[in-house]
Amino acid sequence: MLRGKPQISVKVDDKGLKARNKELALILELSNVLASSFSLQGVLENSLSRVLDFFDLRAGRIYLMTEGGKEMELVAHHGIDPGGLEQVSVDTGFSGKAVKTRSFIAQHVSDLGDQKRVALLSSKGLHTVLCTPLITRDQVLGVMNLATDKELILKQDSIDLLIALGNQIAVAVDNARLYEDLGAKVDELTEKKNTIKFFAYSVSHDLKSPAVSLCGLTKRFSEKYGPMLDEKGREHCRHILKSAEEMLALVDTINAYMAAKEAPLTLENIDLNEIAEAAKEEFAADMKRHHVQWRSSDLPEIVGDRMAMTRVFRNFVDNALKYGGEALSEIRINYREDDQHHILSFSDDGQGIDPEDREKLFEIFKRTKTAGGTAGSGLGLSIVKEIAERHGGCVWINGDAPTGATFYVAVSKDLSCGRYPDDGARRTEKGETDEKHQKDHGGH
Questions:
Q1: CA 441 – CA 406 distance, rounded (Å)
Q2: Are residues 43 and 175 in the same domain?
Q3: Residues with Cβ < 8 Å from 342, sequence gap 6 or more?
Q4: Residue 55 maps to which CATH number?
Q5: pLDDT tens track for 39-95
Q6: Fewest Cβ atoms nearer than 10 Å: which of 138, 166, 279, 288?
Q7: Of residues 419, 422, 266, 441, the one with CA closest to residue 344
Q8: What is the value of pTM for the model shown?
Q9: Bridge partners for 108 per DSSP
Q10: Domain-terminating residue out of 183, 216, 243
């Protein structure tokens, strides 16, 4: 077709297509109707009207299969009183035959075997009926029933066009149902999420008061009556106090996790050196007791949520002290950057992390084998993960060394003071950010 021509240019417009090929223009028009945002019934009625106008037919109906697969229910009609035609069986009539045989059928009304049906259709002024099954993904979803009050001369290309239109309608019906099912599942998941969130808030709120009271009462009891108790009694007091403190710590951690996940961020310029120094002072006694050295490079000023970033530093240092074991002798905090992110690393030379545990470290309530016997909730690194993602970054662990561990936290440079980072910015590119940083910096 291009022989002797440098190019072919045909303007894409509905009028031009309609003038050249009316059948293709109808398919394009119908596809636009079926893709509209109307309800399924509105879309089908609109489509039916266009098909009737194109073929100059008087009336039409669209039936869809009911759940049992034995009946079809009228969902759209045009140009006819649907009284008495609200349901049809797949075992009777033109429509049922078209569905069962998966065939296009054109037939005179008078040829129907059911005389009552003949009388009903004739009373509505119908002479000839055309039935096109609605088929997609090898499933018959229903039938399009078209009718006229006159004789018809049907050519094969008209029949083929009706079959193609039936397929288009079937695809639209199938997509609408899939969308409806998806919407129902999303609503169900949202309801479950809200229920779980409400449960978590309720539990943490209702547990905190008795936990605080139990801690306070046990301390007062131990101080006032401890000398009167024997060693067994004092040991029981210590166990009660320890359990109450663990319960209180768990409630506080759950609240911290929910805050990391849901609470609005207050973005401001923060000096990470100040946050690192605060973490060092907080854990100074523990580090001195375990002879652990603190090493931190010069850290930058970044835009972030101060409380959230404080939680990141605190959680990593706390984890190193809790799980580093006897080999732990130093905790190191370093900084580097790339074009889009600030990258903080938290390293220690303590007990290593089993490779099979690294994949689940950041999952909620997951604890490693080495954590056995050490108090903890399994939420610490999940909190860090949420904070990193809400700051437009990610978190990962690096290295295959049998000892020590290095965790990385990336924070986006594209954050503005006072502006809450929208969910799309922190979630959409999250997978790409994870993969890119782990590849670029050797993460696992």
A1: 11
A2: yes
A3: 300, 302, 335, 410, 411, 412, 413
A4: 3.30.450.40
A5: 788 888 888 999 999 999 999 999 999 988 889 999 999 988 888 889 988 988 888
A6: 138
A7: 441
A8: 0.49
A9: 128
A10: 183
